[in-house]
Each structure stands twice: as C-alpha cells, then as structure tokens.
Design a protein that fits this description.
The complex is a heterodimer of chains A (234) and B (263).
Chain A: H1 4-8, H2 17-30, H3 32-65, H4 68-76, H5 91-129, H6 131-139, H7 144-182, H8 185-188, H9 192-222
Helix pairs in contact in A: 2-7, 3-5, 3-7, 3-9, 5-9, 7-9
Chain B: H1 9-22, E1 24-37, E2 40-53, E3 57-61, H2 68-75, E4 83-88, E5 91-92, H3 98-107, E6 109-112, H4 124-134, H5 139-152, H6 168-179, E7 186-190, H7 198-215, E8 218-222, H8 226-231, E9 234-239, E10 242-248, H9 249-262
Parallel strand pairs in B: 3-8, 3-9, 6-7, 7-8
Antiparallel strand pairs in B: 1-2, 1-4, 4-5, 9-10
Helix pairs in contact in B: 4-5, 4-6, 5-6, 6-7
The chains are: A mainly alpha (234), B alpha/beta (263).
C-alpha cells in the first residue's frame, strides 16, 4: 500500500508566502473598520511609549547641553539638573531620577500588557467569526501551518501599521510640548540619534506585541476541525 | 486487450472506462461512530458497510439524525470512525497523519457545501485557484486552469467578481469549479441544493451530472432533495445509523414516486 506522501513525490503542499500575504491583506481591507479599532489600541500604547522615550531623550540632551539658559528653563519645570561643581550627578538627584524611571517602566509595562490583551481579544473574535472560512480552507487542503501564518501575518501587518502611526503621534506630541516648554533650544540640542533609536525600539516592541497577541488565536484557528465548514447553521 | 487485432482509441478508452467503473474508490468496513454527549453516548453510526465505485453518482438519503451527515463526513475524510475502517482509494484514512490528510483533501476530494463557503475576500477565480495553490501549481498554471473550469461552469465572464456580487446559483457554480480544481477522484456535495430555489437547484444538479459524465469523477452527495434522485446511479438510504437499503438506478423511478407520495 502506497502512502500519500510517497504519491505526492517532491511536490509538497506548500503555499507561496506571497499568497498568504495577499490573503491577509485583503482580509484586513475588507474588515477595515474592525481592524482600525484593534489598531487604535496599538497606536495608543505605542504613542505613549514613544512619547515617554522621546521626552527622556530630549530632556537628556538639554541637560547634557549644560547651558545656563536651558538649565534655568529645566529648573523652572522642576527637573533636577543635578550637576554639582565638578559636573557629576549628585547622589540625591540620581536617586530621584531612578525612582522616576521605575515609575515610568511600570506605566509602560501596564499599557503594553493592556495592548496585548486587546490584540488577542480582537484576533480571537476574528477567528470565531471566520470559523467556517478556516474550515473550508482546511477542506481544500490547507495545512495548519498555513492558517497560523495567515493570522500571524494579519496581526503583524495590523500591528506594524499601528506602531508606525503611534510612533509618529507620540513623537509629534512630545515635540510640541517640548517646544512650548523650551522653545527653539529643543532644535539646537536635538537628540536625533537617540530619537531614531527609540523609534526603532518602539517599532520592534509594537510588532512583537502584535505577534504575541495573535499566537493563541492563530493556534486555535489552526486546530479547528474541517468539519466546521459543513455546519450550515450560522 | 487482444494482441492480434489493432483496436481503435475509442474502443480502448471504453474498456478503460468500464474497468474504472468496477473500481472501488471509497469503502467502509463496519464503521461505527459514537459521540460522547455529556453522560450520554450517542451512536451515530452502528456499523456501516458501503462500497462506492469510481465514476458513479451516489446519493445518501436519510432524515436528520439518521447518521447521514456522519457517514458523509467519514467518506470525505473529515471525520474518523470510532470503530471500523474507511478506505479512500484503498488507503486507510485512520492511518494518515495531518499532513497526508491535507494532501488527500487537496488532491483526491473536492467539497461542495450547502452554503457555498466561498472565501469572501477572494474573487471567483481566486476561489477556484486556491486548491491549486495549495497543490503547488504556479500562478500561471492555476490561472489558466481556473479560467477553463470557470468557463465550464459558464462563469468565465464573472471571474473577477467577489462572492457577494454573485447570486446563490452562481456562487454554487464557482464552488463546483473549485471542487474540481485538482481533478479529484471524488466530489462530496453536502446538500448542494439546500440553499437554492427549485430552478437553480436543478441547474446545479444537471451541472454535477454533466461533470460526472464528462470527466468521470465520482460524486457523492448527501441530500433530501428528490430532484437529486433521478440523476443518481445509486441511492443509499440511512436510518438509525445503519444502511436501510440501497437502490440502483432502475429501481429508482418507483422509489421516487413512493417517497413523493408519502409527503
């Protein structure tokens, strides 16, 4: 008795990656309204992350400038300049900064967690909504891995688009606020390298979050029995 | 084949077709299926032996709850029996791993559903070519073959339409073309006329019948549409998880009038 994999020979059931990309993009386009809501969660979380990071970068850069005019502005905003005569940060100021940083970290983690939960929830809904479509694809010969690919790609596209928008919003808002507070000094001591680093980091974080959020839903979709496609009562 | 007398191609083809008709494509051996519904065990199938031959048009009839759908899913490789064996093309379905099952569904079986189940985000042509993509055809090959299939079902001019832009009958035609995408051995049609009106239903049945006659594909359909009976080669009646009786084509005319008379 020959097995089917022998019959299949070298030609395996594979799906060009491009097809999976094509399908997931058209899926997003057709459910644009809902994906916009899901994406807005990512946008908000990443905008917050980016605004914190770029604010840090700007202040760091201003502080490093150590010009008397800027120091005055910083002090007026209640920001510790914290440099003694020798130019080193005082221990007291350092402790205060550390406390501030850990508070920030806590807030950022919380917002990202909420974001992941939001993505997972939206993707689960999307799976439930499409159970018949998934079943049909499995009847037509789709492998589990293809279904997983489909959902992960969809979430990644959604996530990276949202992240890009979030980065832009977060950065622009922070820049606006910094301009109000410190005027053109912001541009004089513009921390371009630091901001680009933050933007890249935020991009990675946002995309990763979307991937993580979509893992469980994608796995659930892949494990769906093809018989589901036969049910007509939906 | 005799060696002394040269035969015309038509004769050879006829002989091959005859031999094909005797070949069994699906065979079930004492198939039982038990579902655990909470505390209760439900015996959906209580031992079904059935042989389905290559090139025939077989209908499975039975009231709801008779095990018709369960048997149908079994012969389609969508469900595994609790006991007994199902052979599709002489391969025991229970022995296949997920990968081989996907291969079987992709190459050997075409599915037609009651509610059409076209992928909503894809055009008619993309829907038809999807199984070919799964089978590893290049996009040029699948496009060409997809158009050919669409023209066979009379929808070549609608190839760029999305499912929601097509009528129910047209959607089911696309589904028929999709089912035939990888030249399957068996086409499974689950209540293919269930969501269609009388006229379009008849058209789909005729389309299936003509596909069966021209390409020799085996068609198995679960139905309680009596229009389906008149085109079937054989009809299997399922009752209480067993085969109640099997009627051949010549016996069918009487059966149909009887069944219709009961209603």
């Amino acid at each position: 008795m020959t097995t089917y994999s022998q019959l299949a020979g070298g030609r395996e059931i594979s799906l060009p990656f491009s097809k999976a990309i094509e399908i997931s993009i058209s899926n997003l386009r057709i459910r644009f309204g809902r994906s916009l809501i899901t994406t807005s969660g990512v946008i908000l979380a990443i905008a917050f992350l980016m605004s914190v990071w770029s604010n840090n970068a700007i202040i760091e850069s201003l502080r490093a400038a150590d010009s008397s005019e800027v120091n005055l502005l910083l002090q007026r905003k209640g920001i510790e300049i914290g440099l003694d005569a020798s130019g080193a940060v005082s221990a007291e100021a350092q402790a205060r900064m550390d406390e501030e940083a850990s508070k920030q970290l806590w807030l950022i983690s919380l917002s990202l967690l909420v974001c992941v939960v939001g993505i997972a929830n939206a993707m689960l809904m999307s799976v439930t909504e499409r159970f018949r479509e998934i079943g049909t694809m499995k009847c037509l010969g789709a492998l589990d891995s293809f279904i997983v690919k489909l959902f992960l790609l969809e979430s990644t596209f959604q996530g990276s688009a949202g992240t890009a928008v979030g980065i832009a919003i977060g950065f622009l808002l922070t820049l606006l606020l910094a301009l109000i507070d410190y005027g053109t000094h912001v541009f004089t001591y513009f921390p371009a390298a630091g901001l680009i680093r933050s933007a890249i980091a935020a991009m990675v974080v946002g995309t990763l979050l979307s991937l993580i959020g979509a893992m469980l839903p994608a796995w659930r979709a892949a494990k769906m029995e093809p018989v589901a496609a036969m049910r007509s009562d939906t | 084949m005799s060696e002394d007398k040269p035969q015309s191609t038509a004769e050879v083809v006829e002989k091959i077709v005859e031999a094909e008709e005797q070949r069994t494509v699906v065979r079930t051996q004492d198939v039982k299926k038990i579902y655990q519904m909470g505390e209760v065990e439900v015996h959906a199938l209580r031992g079904v032996d059935l042989e389905i031959y290559a090139g025939e048009y077989l209908s499975i009839m039975g009231p709801s709850g008779s095990g018709k759908s369960t048997l149908f899913n079994m012969v389609g490789g969508l469900d595994k029996p609790s006991d007994g064996k199902v052979y599709i093309d002489e391969v025991d379905v229970a022995q296949l791993d997920a990968y081989e099952l996907a291969w079987l569904r992709c190459r050997k079986i075409g599915y037609i559903f009651q509610s059409f189940n076209l992928i909503p985000v894809m055009t008619a042509l993309e829907n038809v070519t999807l199984p070919m993509v799964f089978a590893g055809l290049t996009s040029d090959e699948s496009r060409e073959k997809g158009m050919e299939l669409l023209s066979k079902v009379g929808l070549a001019d609608r190839h760029s339409h999305k499912p929601f832009e097509l009528s129910g009958g047209q959607q089911q035609r696309v589904a028929v073309a999709r089912a035939l995408a990888n030249d399957p051995t068996v086409v499974l049609a689950d209540e293919p006329t269930g969501n269609l009106d009388l006229k379009t239903g008849t058209e789909i049945i005729e389309l299936l019948r003509s596909m069966n006659e021209t390409s020799g594909v085996t068609i198995i359909s679960a139905t309680h549409d009596h229009k389906m009976l008149s085109v079937s080669d054989r009809v299997v009646w399922i009752k209480d998880g067993r085969v109640d009786h099997i009627a051949n084509r010549d016996e069918l005319d009487i059966e149909v009038t009887q069944v219709e008379g009961e209603e």
